[in-house]
Design a protein that fits this description.
This protein is mainly α. It has twelve helices and three strands; from the N terminus they run H-H-H-H-H-H-H-E-E-E-H-H-H-H-H. The chain has a three-stranded antiparallel beta sheet with strand order 1-2-3. 30% of the residues are buried.
Length: 355
């Protein structure tokens, strides 16, 4: 017999209430707006596959399996194969997590008696080994990008660089108050060496950077309202100081004076502008060391090379802002030749020094 307080909502009604809840969490910082929209998009897809008028509590484990399989076969419009190709394993796993979160909430508030996800058997095939397109840059590629940023911050680079989201017109030289070379260099250096999420980067304010005992720190406001204080490498701290005193100090009157990263019009930089900055910087890298990369790819690059250089795992976890060491596995890519290097330097085969 059903409990008296069971609320037999339709799939559509329950999805609407759940999406309203997760969007409200962005106001408290419990979820980022981007994450909330991913959940909302997946829940909308779930409604379409399950049927709007179906009662949520009537769905069984077999129904959920059918929905997960239907999603896996859906064409992915972001991919270039004819028809868009099927959903990737990562997309399937993300969709399953979104649906699972919906049912977990439904159990708590009395929309379902039993969580059908406990009876679902369909899972996405885990990807193993090297990805066809690596997310982390190799050491040579990363050093090429960082070298380009250093050159740009030292010599100020090409004064006629591109504005956000586009390329400067031929022969056009920007005014002093429109130059963004130091800002672009700082963006690339922070992403490559500290590995923040792009949302954390564009959300940063000038007051989030402070000095303690001669060391420059960045207080990063991360997911779920959590903060972490990360010391900046010396080279990055020096570029930050020059940027704050020169480019950042000459923004137009009435600009958003709290934001660290501004457009030349004085507006806080948007997430989409960061990719354009990276792409511009890549054009300064030697073609043999150049590979396109996203801001999240540079986060992977930070984790991969810190861990490959035997930096303590807990220190890397704290730099990236993860609560669980196990999460680092998702941010760690294999490096060519790293196993050979590790075995050549095997700790048990090193000669003992006289005591």
């Amino acid at each position: 017999m059903r409990p008296a307080d069971l609320n037999r909502l339709t799939v559509c009604e329950s999805a609407d209430r759940y999406v309203e809840l997760i969007r409200a969490k962005t106001l408290t910082g419990a979820l980022s707006p981007a994450t909330a929209e991913v959940y909302a998009r997946d829940v909308a897809t779930f409604v379409g596959l399950a049927g709007e008028e179906v009662v949520l509590d009537d769905l069984t484990g077999e129904d959920v399996d059918a929905i997960l399989l239907a999603f896996a076969r859906k064409p992915d419009g972001r991919r270039s194969e004819p028809g868009g190709g099927v959903q990737s394993a990562s997309s399937q796993a993300r969709f399953r997590r979104s649906v699972s979160a919906l049912f977990k909430h439904a159990v708590l508030v009395g929309w379902v008696q039993v969580n059908p996800m406990a009876l679902a058997t369909v899972t996405a095939k885990e990807r193993g080994g090297l990805r066809p397109q690596r997310r982390a840059l190799t050491r040579e590629q990363a050093q090429g990008l960082i070298g380009a940023a250093r050159d740009l911050s030292g010599g100020r680079g090409d004064r006629g660089g591109a504005a956000e989201g586009g390329v400067a017109e031929a022969g056009r030289v920007r005014r002093r108050d429109q130059r963004t070379e130091l800002r672009d260099a700082l963006i690339v250096l922070l992403l490559s060496t500290v590995g923040p999420r792009v949302s954390e980067l564009v959300r940063a304010d000038v007051e989030d950077f402070y000095t303690n005992d001669g060391v420059r720190y960045w207080r990063i406001f991360g997911k779920g309202g959590k903060t972490r204080d990360v010391p900046l490498p010396g080279d990055v701290a020096r570029v930050l100081e020059v940027y704050l005193s020169e480019e950042r100090g000459g923004v137009p009157e009435g600009a958003q004076d709290k934001a660290l990263l501004l457009s030349w019009r004085g507006k806080r930089l948007a997430r989409g502008d960061v990719q354009a900055v990276i792409d511009r910087m890549q054009r300064r890298v030697d073609p043999d060391r150049r590979r396109s990369v996203t801001p999240h790819g540079l986060r992977h690059t930070t984790a991969t090379h810190l861990l490959a250089d035997a930096v303590d795992m807990d220190a890397v976890r704290r730099v990236l802002g993860h609560s669980d060491l196990a999460t680092l596995g998702r941010y760690r890519d294999e490096l060519p030749g790293e196993l050979e290097v590790a075995m050549r330097a095997h700790p048990l085969l090193r000669e003992q020094r006289g005591g």
